[in-house]
Amino acid sequence: MRIASVEDDKSQSELIQQILVSAGHECECFASGSTFLRALREQTFDLLVVDWQLPDTSGLEVVTWVRQNSGRNPPILFLTSRSLEEDIVGGLGAGADDYMIKPIRRAELVARVSALLRRTYPQAQQDSAMIRVGNYCVDPQARTVTFGESRADMSPREFDLALFLFRNLGRLVSREVVEQAVWGRAIGAGSRTLDTHISRLRIKLALRPENGVRLTSVYSHGYRFEAAGDGDKQDLRDLQDPQDSQHKQED
Predict the structure, then answer these.
(1) What is the pTM of this model?
(2) pLDDT (tens digit, 0 to 9) for every residue of the chain, 251 residues total?
(3) Are residues 118 and 175 in the same domain?
């Protein structure tokens, strides 16, 4: 998940970032409320961690602005040294979802962040689950794919494509759907970008039946990625891309 930390103390900011990154999240730090609010006009975050005392405004004002302009999401965690009951009530009343008092305790911060993310994005928690197919293990949080004893060396885009395929195991997916999911747009009929990335994944991940999977190009449509053996239940000969015969021979 992508998290923003609004904290002006450099050492505290670095500690928050280190804790959240080690827990598998992305964390971008902001030293002032105004810097963060400017960034929020162009970026999105899944969760905010906000200090009360900021050099140019208060965390309370930041929370109020976010709630007035962004609605109920993203969830907000106040992380501050202010421990009076009236402060806690005021922070939650302004729209914060949780309140944690400094000093920062690593396990508590991770637990509170995880609880907020679970409540806010239940589907995302399912999406973060490990995927195991054949000899492969895909870890969406760590963004790694391992097969056997090897970890694949992939670019971020290659991993996004691999994750999409594993999440859609057994489905016939069109080129346009794959492009929108991985690149965020339709690339165009004349481009070989998708084909090139598919070819790289075949090699880097050794996508072959002996490893438990089969990747088939479907003529004039897209791709089917399935567990080895599933494809034997139906005849794809009329749909198979002639170019894919070479891959089947290699398999």
Answers:
(1) 0.53
(2) 789 999 999 999 999 999 998 887 889 999 999 999 998 887 888 899 999 999 999 999 999 999 988 888 899 999 999 999 999 999 999 999 999 999 999 999 999 998 998 888 776 555 667 889 999 999 988 889 998 888 999 998 899 899 989 988 888 888 888 888 888 777 777 788 999 999 999 999 999 999 999 999 988 778 989 998 644 444 334 334 444 444 444 44
(3) no
For residue 219, give its domain range.
Answer: 131-250
Same domain, 112 and 161: no
**H or E stretch at 117:** helix 106-120
Report the CATH number at residue 32: 3.40.50.2300
Shared domain for 193 and 229, answered yes or no, is: yes
CATH number at 187 reads 1.10.10.10
Please give the sequence-ordered ranges of beta strands (E in DSSP) within the chain, or none if there are none: 2-6, 26-30, 47-50, 76-80, 98-101, 131-133, 136-139, 144-147, 150-151, 172-174, 213-218, 222-227
Q: Count up the domains in the chain and report the number.
A: 2
Of 63, 67, 52, 62, nearest in space to 8 by CA? 52
d(CA 23, CA 21): 5
